[in-house]
UniProtKB/TrEMBL annotation:
Protein name, entry field: TetR/AcrR family transcriptional regulator
Organism from which the protein derives: Sphingobium tyrosinilyticum
DNA-binding region: 37-56
InterPro entries: Homeodomain-like_sf, HTH-type_TetR-like_transc_reg, HTH_TetR, Tet_transcr_reg_TetR-rel_C_sf, TetR_SbtR-like_C
UniProt keyword list: DNA-binding, Transcription, Transcription regulation
Superkingdom classification of source: Bacteria
Tagged with keyword Transcription: yes
Residue ranges occupied by any HTH tetR-type domain in the UniProt entry: 15-74
Amino acid sequence: MSKSPIKGASRRDAQHNRAHILEVARAAFARNGIDVSMDAIAKMAGLGAGTLYRNFPNKDALLAALLDRHYEGLEERRLAIEAEETDEARALERWIEALGDWMLAYEGLPEPLRAACRSESPLSQACHTVIATTERLLKAAQDKGHARTQVTGRDLFLGALAIAWAGGDTIAGEDTTKVLRTVLQSGWRESAAS
């Protein structure tokens, strides 16, 4: 039995609409941050709001789909870090930097990521995965005595999130992110004296 040509065309149209929405949203969020409304995205895409909401029931679902591409880049950085670093503390430090960059993919992204940590959302899975990776890298540093044992991967994730939020703020200075990352690092690193 062959597939109906109408169903095949309909499926292609749906895939095209989804890809088009993602491209329009990516450009809109890159330009204006995530405060762009769903209705504005539908209008920019030249589609009805119903088409947008059929593909993405809310903004978190749209952000989660957009972050898939950014997560691939984050994973590439993790693989490079693990391949290049033999010092567990330096590997963790580089991972936290990569994490902060991922969190700054779009202006305003730290807030929905924070919300996804405390309640279920389409962004929750990405947060849990990143926290688990952070926990694993932290544990390796802790096992070598480079990181404080009371610190958790979730603590570091939330610290990086706070830095991304503060660094993305319009009142932040040029060096805000760098300074705050240094403060976070001094908080998780085990001091030689202790």
